[in-house]
Each structure stands twice: as C-alpha cells, then as structure tokens.
Design brief:
Layout (H helix, E strand, L loop, with lengths): L8 H12 L1 H16 L3 H23 L8 H9 L1 H36 L8 H16 L4 H30 L22 H15 L15 H31 L3 H9 L3 H9 L2 H35 L17 H21 L4 H32 L12 H15 L13 H18 L1 H14 L13
Length: about 475
C-alpha cells in the first residue's frame, strides 16, 4: 500500500517544527554554548541561523523539483547519484533515529521537573518517563499522520507562546530598570570581542545547529502532501524564518536575564533549566511550572516527529531494495508501521545502553546523543548543498540565476568549518569521541554501497522510476 497524499502546507510545517522542537531548543541548547563562549551565545545562534539559511537554500530549491518520502535520499540520489544519495539518507536516518532517544530524554527531564513542581513526587526517575515517551511515539505515529501533525502544531504553538511571553517580560524589566539583580540592557552579546575569539564562537555554533537541525523534516512528506512542489518549499522557508527569530530572540533574552557578566554567563551555563530559573525570578514560580510542562510537551513532540521522519526514510529504503521488504509495508491507515516499530524499539534500546554505560543524567543523555545526531546531519546538509549546486547550475539546464551559485557553496564551506571545529582543538570527554561515532556511521554507509554495487544500481533504477523531476514550467513560484 502506498502513502496517502492528503496533507496541507501547515501540516508539513508541523513535522519540521516537531523535529526541531523549538521550545526544548530554547530551554536547553544555550547552556552548553554559554559554557564555551560566555555571553556570546546570541552571536553563535545568529551565525547558526545564517548557516542554516545558506543550507536551506538547497533544500528549498530542490524540493521545488523533487518530492519523495526518502527526503535527502532522493534529493541527493537524483542530483549526485544513488551511492551518495544512500549515504546522505543513511546519515539523515541516523539523525532522526537518535533524535527520538535524545528528545525523549529531554521530555523526561522536564516532565520530572513539572511533576516535582506540582508536588506529585520528588526524585522521580527519568528513564521510565523517557521510555514511555518513546512508546507513545509508536502509538500516535501508527495513526493517520494528520492526527499527530495537528498535535505537534498545537503543542508547539502553546509552548512557544509561553516562552515569548517570558522573553517579553525579561526585555521589559531589563529596559525599565526593574530586573531582579539590576541586569543591564546591551547589544554586546551580538558583538565579537570580550575575550572570546571568533573560532570559539564558531565551535559553539554546533549547539545552534542542534536547535535548527530537523528543519528539512517536511521534505519526508513529499509523497503525502497535496501539492508538494509548492507546499514543501514553503514549509521549509517558514520553519527557518520562524525558528530563527525565536532562537536568536530567546538566547538574547536569556543572556540578558542571567546578566551580561562573567558571573551571569556561569550561572547560565550551570542552569539545567534556564527558562525555569528566569521565569521564577522575572515573573512567578507558577510560570516556571507551566514552562516545564510546555518544554516536556515540546520535547515529546520532537521525538514524535523524528520517529515519523525515520520511519518514512526506512520505508523508502526498503521499497527500493535496501533492507527487509517488510519495512516497506503500510497499515490500512497508510502508515509505515513496521518500520516505525523498529525505530521506536531501537531508540528505547539506545537510551538504556547510554544510561548503563555512559551517563545516568537526562541532561547529559540529551546532549551526548543529540550532538552525535547533529554531526550526522551536518554531513547530510553538506551533500544536499553540493547536490543543489550541481543540479541547479551544471546539469545541462540553468534552473537558477548564476549569482546564486555562491549560496550553496558558502553553505557547504560553513558546514565543513563547523565540522572541523568539532575535532580541532580537541574537546573534553565525551565530546572528543562523539564525532568519531558520527564519522563511523557515515563510513559504514559508504562501505555498504561498495560491497553491494548491484543493490546500489538497483536503487538508482528505483529512484528513476519513483521520482518525477518537475520541469521548470511545473514548479510553483517561490514563497
């Protein structure tokens, strides 16, 4: 049974926002960056936004011509060949897969904080809640995707609204001089200097990528959206613009809220729940409780969306001959439930393994697993950018103005530099070994294409059959 084409642009947007988890990104991703670059966190997130915009260009352009459940697997497979497409899709699947585990750990972290704040029980273990999150991902995603899509969007809208309210209050109180500790308003967090070099800021921008990673999620709905060549590009643009504004604004508000001082930056870096702490100080403990619930819901939404993306990639691979044929089967509702079962079972196992061997902390589990995933997705974005460059300008048909050639090239260079900064200088454990897990995952994909050349050839033939590359006359106007 095939996937059903029934989704609108806002439902495609919901998958991108769901995987990104804007609220959880605003609630957690700034702390690790603050530990590296102090008060320059907003600058690092602004650089990450610029980098993602450069990368997003390629996805937006390609999705105006190519629509497929395999997302990057098809976008890169059509533009750079099936071997590279397999590697890109494999890395993207790895990112989605680990995101189910990382986001579920974050959902448990904030779920425990919420239950604690309402007096349900103290010292609740987080791992059972995280495993419950993974199980619910399987249950909800087994339904028609319209149902989880609407849930994702509703959860994110409510959670984002709460964070925006807190940010507005922080800005207002800092500007009118009524901040709890006389914090001052300044734009210095967006300026270089202050003893922090640009190289360190670039290295910290990986945590900005952790926030933006997943914006391409809508592309996995290329076979389920009513008008994919129009709606998928729009969903991608909306995802980048909306979250870019939110992330930069929230990091600026959080930096001002803790104080643009060395002590303030240290407080920011030490905080396991910065929005919780700021809500307590600037508004009321009641808002902190509500924000904990919103952050837990957002993290769960991120896990839910990542499971949807991973199951669709697995469906596309199996349909084209990679993996058991059972993974390409769909339920009566048109959902790839067999692939979904594998994804959620594997994510639960990954969480338990990391818990037993590396860390028992939910915060660390989120960052360790999440960082591994974001390094995988940097590789994905790099090959997609290069694929867009080749397809748009050197495939025999000029599909974009020549001056735009610089955009995907700059995106690729930016990604390469950010990836390089994860190795040099050598970070502290376990971040010094995490990049090698990501590299090993990608190299495994390369090895598979080399030892199974016939399978790779068959994949290319399947892509030729499955993917209908739109002509320029069919492409919808840019959003």
């Amino acid at each position: 049974m095939a996937l059903r084409r029934e989704l609108k642009v806002w439902e495609a947007l919901a998958l991108s926002l769901g995987i990104m988890g804007p609220t959880i990104a605003m609630a957690l991703d700034g702390t690790a960056a603050a530990g590296l670059i102090g008060t320059k966190v907003p600058f690092a997130f602004l650089l990450a936004l610029i980098g993602i915009a450069l990368v997003g260009y390629g996805f937006v352009r390609l999705s105006r011509y190519i629509s497929h459940a395999g997302s990057v697997y098809a976008l890169v497979g059509v533009t750079l060949g099936p071997r590279t497409g397999f590697v890109g899709g494999w890395a993207l699947w790895g990112f989605y897969f680990v995101s189910v585990a990382a986001s579920s750990a974050a959902a448990a972290l904030f779920g425990v904080a919420f239950l604690d704040s309402v007096g349900v029980h103290r010292n609740i273990p987080w791992l059972p809640l995280a495993l419950l999150s993974v199980a619910l991902c399987g249950v909800l995603n087994s339904r028609k995707f319209k149902t989880p899509a609407r849930s994702l969007l509703a959860i994110e809208v409510i959670s984002i609204t709460l964070v925006v309210i807190l940010c507005v209050v922080i800005f207002a109180r800092v500007l009118n001089g009524s901040a709890p500790h006389e914090q001052k308003f300044t734009f210095s967090p967006f300026l270089p200097g202050g003893g922090i070099n640009f190289s360190a800021i670039m290295a910290a921008s990986v945590f900005g990528f952790l926030a933006f990673a997943g914006f391409e999620g809508a592309a996995a709905l290329g076979e389920e959206t009513d008008n994919p060549k129009r709606d998928i590009p729009r969903a991608l643009i909306y995802a980048i613009v909306l979250t870019g504004i939110l992330f930069v604004m929230s990091m600026f508000a959080e930096t001002l809220g803790f104080g643009v001082t060395t002590a303030g930056a240290e407080h920011f870096a030490r905080s396991a729940a910065p929005l919780d702490a700021l809500a307590d100080e600037f508004v009321d403990p009641g808002l902190a409780t509500i924000l904990n619930f919103g952050a837990a819901s957002s993290a769960f939404a991120s896990a839910l969306a990542a499971a949807a993306g991973a199951s669709r990639l697995m469906f596309a691979y199996s349909r084209d001959g990679w993996g058991p044929r059972a993974f390409s089967q769909t339920s009566k509702r048109g959902e790839p439930t067999t692939a979904l079962t594998v994804v959620v079972s594997g994510a639960a196992a990954l969480m338990v393994i990391v818990y037993l061997t590396v860390t028992t902390s939910a915060v660390n589990e989120f960052f360790y697993i999440g960082t591994t995933g974001v390094l995988m997705v940097i590789v994905v974005y790099a090959v997609a950018s290069f694929g867009a460059f080749r397809f748009l300008f050197f495939s025999g048909v000029n599909r974009a103005p020549r001056w735009e050639m610089a955009v995907p090239l700059m995106g690729t260079v930016y990604l390469a530099y950010v990836l390089y900064k994860q190795f040099v200088p050598t970070p502290v454990f376990p971040y010094n070994v995490i990049p090698y897990f990501a590299v090993g995952w990608v190299l495994l994909a390369v090895a598979l294409t080399l030892v199974r050349p016939a399978q790779t050839k068959h994949m290319g033939e399947a892509l030729t059959t499955d993917v209908q590359v739109g002509s320029d006359s069919e492409v919808a106007p840019k959003a």
